[in-house]
Amino acid sequence: MSEPSTYRRTQSTYRRILRRETHSPRSVLAITVAVVLILALLYLGTEIVLAMIGTRALLAAPLDMLDALAHLDDAPDGLVVGVGVGLLLIGALLIIGAATPGRRGRHQMSTERGLAVVDDEVIASALARHAAHAGDVDPDNTTVSVSRRVAGVHLVPTSGTRIRRDAVISTVAEQLEAFDLTPSLEPRIVVAERGRVGA
What pTM was estimated for this model as a whole? Predict the structure, then answer.
């Protein structure tokens, strides 16, 4: 087997593994839709059986439902428009949910030996440690949140002291560059206006 084809197959395997680790399946959405459809069909089946044995309907008899649909143009315009808009929104949400990939709280990190997948919490913890040291802030007063594209650093100074904001920005930017994450993160530094007494 030639070396280029082995390399391509290895790269393809890596890409598949990385995608699986950074994207979540749409299982919850699929299960929710399936449960709603099953409940609707169970209800409809129950109404049909009750109509066949001549018992009073739970909500509406199947023939009454068909008659209401046939005479939908007699219903108030506001009701028809409202139901139509509601169904349109549900359909749009389902299409968007099915077409867009789910995301996990993870990023790809380049290493000397290849690629690694890192949880956003690990990235946030590392950034918090470096930001606290650079800003001369107690680690308990440093909070970092990592989203898909942004690393937000929130610092609360000790009362009567100033945080070296430029040093924090520089340190966080250097760390993000060293991590070499995909997708890349943009640092956003927020310093609280009020300090914490005795922190």
Answer: 0.58
